[in-house]
Design a protein that fits this description.
Layout: E1 5-12, E2 15-22, E3 40-45, H1 54-69, E4 72-77, H2 83-94, E5 100-104, H3 109-118, E6 123-127, E7 136-141, H4 143-157, E8 162-167, H5 172-188, E9 193-198, H6 205-217, E10 222-226, H7 232-240, E11 246-251, E12 262-268, H8 270-283, E13 291-294, E14 302-306, H9 312-326
Parallel strand pairs: 1-4, 3-4, 3-5, 5-6, 6-7, 7-13, 8-9, 8-10, 10-11, 11-12
Antiparallel strand pairs: 1-2, 12-14
């Protein structure tokens, strides 16, 4: 019988404060051997497992691993995305001697590299990163590929020739996603201007509203938001503008939530990367010192979704661009050196 342990944590000056609860035992998965010892897996989230975005995607991927692979899961969430705090959280998980620790998100790269060296008998994984080591690998969904498609669609759809981009923390996947989005806009509309902002916070709703409102005031009629819990602020700014602006989401398909707001979504299911890491570990195919990448060739994990009202000619072009990226006829740029839109 397996059980899931969830730890919700917040970092304070004195150290790491933890509260814990455990679920009642669940039925053993049908594909598990009754005599097999379940793999113990720790998951660290630099945010909330219910943010309806990146962190929840990783959490859902490990929940799937728990259900399908029979692992015993411990979750530590609410960690501030700062290296010292991330290291403290990873050490807390490692002290329980799990078989595998998944640090969800590229902001964990340096912390995981440090802590993995301290616990050589534990296997570590960082999602959305490329750090490796003797007991460390990275698993990454290529969100830059779906971000490029979002940019291409924004370039085709814009009426003002000005589009926006918003994110919070300057981690490698977010920077690559921004660069790809700008490149996609340029591919379909070289005359269009892109307003791009990193506010420093993925989860601040009011800050996100202010940034979105400022970009809308500067002429943006489509905004690509790469945020977590702060994303509702963008919708608030769009609604206040009179509904003439639309948003591209990321991570999961936000068009299913509210197509009045979301014209599309650059799906990059980071939970698929987290699940793949655990699956490889449980099945014995895990390789340390390696980066595993998942792109548009696996559309269940990476794709651009579009609302039903998007014109057929735009849909057809996006479909062709998707095929061209998979066939390597289009190279997705991950470098950007242009201007930054100031945070209000």
């Amino acid at each position: 019988m397996q059980r899931r342990i969830v730890l919700k944590a917040s970092l304070v000056i004195a150290g790491l404060g933890l509260t814990a609860c455990s679920t009642a035992p669940t039925d053993e998965p049908a594909n598990a051997s009754p005599s097999a010892k379940p793999a113990k897996v720790g998951l660290l989230l630099a945010g909330s497992s219910s943010d309806k975005g990146f962190m929840q995607s990783g959490f859902d991927g490990l929940k799937r691993a728990e259900a399908e692979l029979g692992v015993e899961l411990t979750v530590l969430e609410g960690i501030k995305p700062e290296q010292a705090d991330l290291e403290t959280g990873l050490r807390k998980l490692a002290e329980a001697a799990p078989d595998l620790i998944v640090a969800h998100g590229g902001q964990n790269a340096k912390a995981a590299t440090t802590v993995a060296a301290e616990f050589p008998k534990i296997t570590f994984v960082v999602t959305q990163s490329d750090v490796v080591g003797s007991n460390l690998s990275s698993y990454e969904v290529l969100q830059e590929e779906s971000a490029w498609l979002a940019g291409a669609a924004a370039g085709l759809l814009t009426k003002t020739n000005t589009v926006g981009h918003m994110s919070g923390i300057r981690v490698a996947p977010g920077l690559k996603g921004r660069a790809a989005y700008v490149a996609g806009v340029a591919h379909t509309n070289p005359q269009a201007k892109v307003l791009t902002n990193f506010s420093g916070n993925q989860d601040d709703v009011e800050l996100s509203r202010k940034v979105a409102a400022a970009e809308i005031s500067a002429g943006a009629d489509y905004i690509f938001s790469m945020l977590n819990a702060g994303r509702p602020g963008v919708a608030q700014a769009i609604e206040a503008s009179g509904g003439k602006v639309r948003e591209f989401g990321n991570v999961r398909d936000f068009t299913k939530d509210d197509p009045r707001i979301f014209v599309g979504s650059a799906v990059a299911d980071s939970g698929a990367a987290a699940f793949a890491a655990v699956k490889d570990f449980v099945e014995g195919s895990f390789q340390a010192d390696t980066t595993h990448r998942i792109g548009l060739e696996e559309p269940q994990a990476v794709r651009l979704t579009l609302a039903d009202y998007v014109p057929a000619d735009v849909r057809d072009k996006i479909k062709q661009f998707t095929s061209d990226i998979v066939a390597k006829k289009i190279t997705v740029s991950v470098e950007y050196s242009g201007p930054e839109f100031p945070t209000p």
